Please model this.
Amino acid sequence: MKILLKKVLVADTNSSFDNSIKDILIDNGKIISIKDNITDNADKIIETELTVSPGWIDSFSHFCDPGFEFKETIETGAAAAIAGGFTQVFVLPNTQPIVQSKSQVEYIVQKSKSLGVTIHPLGAVTKNIEGKDLAEMYDMHASGAIAFSDGLLPVQIPGLFLKALQYVKAFDGVLIQMPIDNSIGTHGLINEGIISTQLGLPGIPAIAEEIMIKRDIELVRYTKSKLHLTGISTEKSIELITAAKAEGLQISCSVTPYHLFYCDEDLQDYDTNLKVNPPLRSKADMLALRKAVMSGTIDCIASHHIPQNWDNKTCEFEYAKNGMIGLETSFAVVNHILPDLSTNQLIKLFSTNARNVFQIKSATIEEGANAELTLFNRNKNTLLSKENIKSKSFNSAFINKELKGKVIGIINKGQLFLN
Amino acid sequence: MRLSTKHLLGIKHLNKEDIQLILSTASNFKDVLQRPVKKVPSLRDVTIVNLFYENSTRTRMSFELAERRLSADTLNFTLSSSSAAKGETLLDTVNNILSMKVDMVVMRHSASGAPHFLAKHIPAAIVNAGDGINEHPTQALLDAFSMQEKFGHLEGLKVAIIGDIMHSRVALSDIYLLKKMGAEIVVAGPPTLIPKYITEALNVRVEYNVKKALQWCDVANVLRIQLERQNQPLFSSLREYSLAYGINRKLLESLGKEITIMHPGPINRGVELDSDVADGPFSIILNQVENGVAVRMAVLYLLANRDN
Model:
């Protein structure tokens, strides 16, 4: 298939064409030529005003397949990822069965082959995600697991996490941890603070996250391993990570779009779509996270796309399950609240930083390179409605919210997908 | 006069005028309850369902009696003998009941925010009879009614709320109400049972020493230790709790002043309150129960909007 992009803005600091308006011709999955004016015939010519960047990567999505196909399947999750502009997605191991062996890893790798987005399984760190014994990470790595995480149930025992950090050094692996100490605020439902007190909801103190980050930083200092902290939510967490990075430790981090957009003050109405883990923190935390994204302290945006079916959200707040879908709105949410973010910085957050952290081949926009591209427009609007959601679940607090920033489509694996 | 809200989800959503209206209406109903014929036709043809997802004796009986005194038709629902025990969701249960043409729902539920959830999904007026650790608005109203009855005013009254503040919906509703009416509040109890941000969130003073709180106050509202709501150890033993925070006659006598004792019930006798205090001359605990019926009549009457 021949695709011709007309008069597009190139956003790729690694490319000699960065920040210039060019025509790009793609044939059979390769970038054939980049010129001021290409007049060749093509199967598809795109003349929409757009910016083109290396394909985007999401490092923390739950596709629930196998086991919970009533919430999401690999196919519906992939469709949501494509609609969100992602060419590569990491999926959580919290499935049934859990992704903890070669065969589970291969199931996802195989299924992903026929889809427009590349899906990377995250292997479990511990057997059955019970936090007791190490899972077969070496074998999973050899079969295609991109990194390792216990996903929604972070490893609690420090001694075990230390061994896990050491273990993956054999193949230069990365662990992903969502930092929450479950012994603090065990029965909490939202951020502990003024709002939780006023709403009569049990709280999860910020310290539950911060103490885990402190601990993990110590473990990384000891093991000299690579750790990616995902879904960080407090101001203090940012301070801790900034200091650890300054010290030269191989620690990186992600935030979710919804922690940048919402805070606990938005929970006055007990909206179950805003029941997430880690919880929405205080307004001061939210503003600190935005600042850290602007300054580059935060390496990546991770959607924390956690689908929940209708029944799991249409019930009493206490009984509602945690999580929000996010792949389809990740870019628009970040672009909307941070209009002053440079396009360079945006592409780092959505693509290049994750490629560096997880050692994924770059997708530079040069002649002769593979075409793995995301097409977007920062000035057009996105309006997610129940009817146009690609995910199988609808648990989003962004439905019917007009957001500035629109994903036009992706080019990946020789195919073009347009929204 | 009308309330500013359609539901009574919590004191948080009421304004001072609403509270005054409920209290003065309750006073009228209290007079009615002294008559030989205690029944009025105010809510004839109004159907009210009492949905009790959590055990209750006092509150359920009080609501039921209030409904009957107002001539409403009532339906009773308790968790153990219902389809909810078979796994039916709250929304399904309520929609089924509403199909039978019910006008009002009185609900007690163990999850904070459950009545707010219902209010978003069904058209009936909802009265919160206690939700999780959030609010118990009719209890706060009857507490205020009882204090006003005793002291003649709420403004400037010094109220100590003592015990398990963290797991008490009565504490939160009392604080919202008394603050709105100009009373002063101190909360006292073990630090593990007092929310960390309570001063910032609710503008109340915290005292860990019960005796100091008692010396300061006019009224002590002593709360139940909510053993059923604690899923982790928050104090070492009931014995130690009683030694450090329990209220007994000797302690009251050492204050050198008279204070009024209240308790929302049921009492853990010998834990938070000794029998000789609970049954003593300064206790208005049974007045609270009596006033509960009048206050609930007022709430149901005002929410039913039958004044014209």
In short: Chain A is about 30% helix and 20% strand. Chain A has one domain: 55-357. The domain at 55-357 of chain A is CATH 3.20.20.140 (TIM Barrel).
